[in-house]
From TrEMBL:
Keywords: Carbohydrate metabolism, Isomerase. Residues 22-272 form the Xylose isomerase-like TIM barrel domain. It comes from Isoptericola halotolerans. Transmembrane segments: none annotated. Pfam families: AP_endonuc_2. InterPro entries: IolE/XylAMocC-like, Xyl_isomerase-like_sf, Xyl_isomerase-like_TIM-brl. This is Sugar phosphate isomerase/epimerase.
């Protein structure tokens, strides 16, 4: 069953406990937690103790969690998203961050860590970038497997891996490991995929481990409020349900933190309306209670 969730990269003006409380208040059943300085800094001292505190917050608010690793400046204050596994220098720092994310996920009781490839460095051939990416994944996969964590790889417009088929190609090159699966951003499906979003989901549904929800228009990589773009949200939710998806569908509005209090409420209602139109049940948290309810 699909779990209604929201990403903390769209809640960066809120303290984490306040953000989680807001989600619980509006019936969300999960949160996509980006490791970053404002909520759970993966590089600051005392990570184990701080992770334990976050686990307590999640339990108190009745929220499931997926760990995301797309923070903009967590590794370099001057270069957004750098270094990556594709970088000429510093790829080992990204790999270390991903290892930390796996450990944090295990400590939080999460089954999933989200990641992406990054942008191909200037002057680097696609073949070299792909070789670097495969080498990094070959090191990371045993870590994830030992921790019982799935790596959910997100195709991202403009990055080396930008389409669903690019992830499938990586999986084939690595022997189709069970621990390497897909993050599907429903906006990206509209932005860059050739087939309609619901058709893409049906084709790869058994590999989807995490879902990000936003609106978008064809050819423009801009995350929009739900209902303001061209995404067929009822169709995508129906396809996810038909595929047996049993994870978080997390609202992904990383440039909208200033309006988070409004958008947490309106996004939940938009997803509920789309699910109702598609006759799809959602896993939610009963507001201000501890039990889980479905609809």
């Amino acid at each position: 069953m699909i779990t209604l969730a929201y990403g903390t990269n769209g809640l960066t003006d809120h303290r984490l406990d306040d953000a989680l409380g807001l989600l619980a208040e509006h019936g969300y059943g999960g949160v996509a937690l980006t490791l970053d300085h404002m909520h759970l800094d993966p590089l600051a001292p005392g990570l184990a103790a701080r992770t334990a505190l976050v686990r307590g917050m999640l339990k108190r608010h009745g929220l499931q969690v997926v760990v995301e690793t797309g923070a903009r400046y967590v590794l370099d204050p001057r270069r957004k998203h750098e270094p990556t596994l594709l970088s000429d220098d510093g790829a080992e720092r990204r790999l270390d961050l991903l290892r930390i994310a796996v450990d944090v996920a295990a400590d939080l009781g999460s089954r999933v860590v989200h990641l992406w490839s990054g942008i191909l460095p200037a002057g680097t051939s696609p073949a070299t970038g792909r070789a670097r990416l495969l080498a990094g994944l070959e090191e990371l996969l045993p870590v994830a497997e030992a921790a019982g964590v799935v790596l959910a790889f997100e195709p991202e417009p403009g990055m080396l891996v930008e389409r669903v088929d690019d992830v499938l190609d990586l999986r084939r090159a690595l022997g189709d490991p069970d621990a390497l699966r897909l993050t599907v951003d429903v906006g990206h499906l509209t932005c860059v995929e050739d087939a309609p979003g619901p058709d893409v989901v049906r084709r790869v549904g058994d590999l989807i481990a995490h879902v990000q929800v936003d609106d978008m228009v064809r050819g423009v990589h801009e995350h929009l409020e739900l209902g303001t773009g061209a995404v067929d949200l009822p169709g995508v939710l129906a396809a996810l349900h038909e595929s047996g998806f049993d994870g978080l569908a997390a609202v992904e509005l990383p440039r909208h933190s200033h309006a988070a209090a409004r958008l947490v409420a309106s996004s939940a209602e938009a997803i509920r309306a789309a699910a109702h139109a598609a006759d799809v049940p959602l896993r939610e948290r009963a507001p201000l209670q501890t039990q889980e309810v479905t609809r």
